[in-house]
């Protein structure tokens, strides 16, 4: 079966796109596909779908009120327009997340640029996007001309200030001797 023997990837005739990405295997052609949108999974018969189809299948209506991002297996987010097609066989595509929003926000985290569909983001979410252990790392907001601001896991940071917000992570330090 195209070199795929993992039962978590193939369920009946549906190929799990997220499992393929996590296992690092190619998504086979000529099958039906299962994707995760937010916390639920949905099945598609066609490997090439558009943003509007994903939102409609997830019952997020009207689609014009939502933003959809594909999550790549390197943690990066890529916005998909309503009429933009996505090939589910694309290597590295992991899952999708949506926001009930009319605009996206950009920020930098550890030198990588991200797009986000909400006006705020938490410290814990930033750590997850940076793919660091939240118990071992801290995250700071870089503030030009001022001292950098440490962002705790539960702190919300606004992304709608002028310019691109910049964040960085670093190992937690202790002052115990």
SSE order and pairing:
Layout (H helix, E strand, L loop, with lengths): L9 E2 L2 E3 H7 L8 E6 L2 E5 L3 E3 H7 L9 E6 L4 E4 L4 E3 L5 E7 L5 E5 L2 E5 L3 E3 H8 L6 E6 L6 E3 L4 E3 L6 E7 L6
Parallel strand pairs: 2-3, 10-16
Antiparallel strand pairs: 1-2, 3-4, 5-8, 6-7, 6-9, 10-11, 12-15, 13-14, 13-16
The CATH H-level superfamily of the largest domain is: Phosphatidylinositol 3-kinase Catalytic Subunit, Chain A, domain 1
Portion in helices: 10-25%
Q: What is the CATH topology classification name of the largest domain?
A: Ubiquitin-like (UB roll)
Residue share in β-strands: 35-45%
Secondary structure: number of strands: 16
> Helix segment count?
3
Q: Give the distance, in angstroms, between the N- and C-terminal Cα atoms.
A: 57 Å
Q: Tell me the domain tally.
A: 2
The largest sheet, given as strand count, sense and whether it forms a barrel, is: 5 strands, mixed
* Broad structural category: mainly beta
Topology pattern, helix = H, strand = E: EEHEEEHEEEEEEEHEEEE
Kindly provide the radius of gyration, computed on alpha-carbon positions and rounded to a whole number of angstroms: 18 Å
CATH class of the largest domain: Alpha Beta
Task: Determine the mean pLDDT.
Answer: 88
Q: Going across the major beta sheet, what is the strand order? A: 11-10-16-13-14
Q: List low-pLDDT spans.
A: 1-6
Shape from CA axes? globular
CATH architecture of the largest domain: Roll
């Amino acid at each position: 079966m195209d070199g795929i023997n993992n039962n978590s990837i193939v369920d009946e005739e549906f190929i799990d796109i997220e499992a393929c990405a996590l296992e690092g295997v190619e998504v086979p052609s000529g099958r039906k596909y299962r994707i995760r949108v937010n916390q639920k999974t949905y099945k598609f018969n066609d490997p090439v779908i558009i943003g509007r189809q994903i939102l409609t299948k997830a019952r997020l209506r009207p689609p014009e009120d939502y933003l959809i991002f594909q999550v790549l297996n390197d943690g990066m987010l890529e916005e998909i327009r309503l009429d933009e097609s996505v090939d589910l066989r694309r290597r590295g595509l992991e899952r999708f997340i949506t926001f009930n929003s009319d605009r996206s926000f950009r920020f930098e985290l550890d030198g990588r640029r991200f797009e986000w569909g909400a006006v705020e983001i938490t410290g814990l979410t930033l750590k997850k996007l940076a793919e660091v252990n939240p118990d071992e790392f801290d995250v700071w907001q870089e503030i030009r001309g001022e001292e950098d601001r440490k962002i705790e896991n539960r702190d919300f940071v606004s992304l709608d200030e002028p310019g691109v917000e910049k964040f960085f992570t670093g190992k937690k330090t202790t002052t115990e001797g």
